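Hi team,

Below is the intake form for Protein TIC 20 from Cucurbita maxima. Please confirm the fields before the structure is written into the shared record.

FORM ID: S-0412
PROTEIN: Protein TIC 20
ORGANISM: Cucurbita maxima
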Amino acid sequence: MKNEAVEMASTFIPLLNLPTHTAIKATLIPHLSVLKSRHRSSLPLLSSKPAKSVAVRMSYNPTPATDRLISAVAYTLPFFNSLQYGRFLFTQYPVLGLAFEPILPILGLYRSIPHSSFIAFFALYLGVVRNPNFNRYVRFNSMQAVTLDVLLAVPLLIQRILSPGSGGLGFQIMVWGHNGLFLFSVLCFVYSLASCLLGRTPHLPLVADAAGRQI
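The structure came back. Fields below:
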């Protein structure tokens, strides 16, 4: 005990001659330095090398303008052939015909060619759909247009077989059917045309699956 007291006295006696704040600082600094060294040793070592940056490259392959144009023109085949279904709407609403006046010169030229619908059908099917020189985008859209044209021709065959006449319930059902087919064909044409011009693939209901199986 005496030795410990002597050791403590030898530690603090020299500090008595110093100012109070200096004595406190001289006492605490050794202990603070030990704590700082322990704290630094406990921290994980950080790598001085900067993190490697990963370069992300995005590939974008736009549809060529030629493919978009051919695909858009292909949908004019079923659209021109479906205009005959709008005769009841044009008669009931004459203003509706004003929206189709810009295409009347092209439509007149198309119908002035004998058997134009058959020529356009086989030219599109044999010249584009079955031509391996065109990519799948053009062939699919052409096949979808051909399939839609065939489906729109079926109601005319049914009409000729049944002959609903010019009055009665059968005639009214025929008018409703023609109006519905006309609106459906116009919506399909506008949707397909806009999609092709933007380089996207339109998927028409009841048509896309049948067209996809033929490619």
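SUMMARY LINE: DSSP finds ten helices and no strands in the chain.

Thanks, M.
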